Amino acid sequence: MVKMLSMSRIGKIARLPHKIRDELNSRLLDGHRGKDLVPWLNSLDETKKLIDCAFKGNPINEQNVSAWRHGGYQDWLRNRSTRERIGRLLDLSAQLQNPIHDNLTPSASSPPSPPAPPRSSPKPKTPSWPACAPTIAQPSPTTNSLQDDQSTHIYEN
Question: What does the pLDDT average to over 70-95?
Answer without folding.
Answer: 93
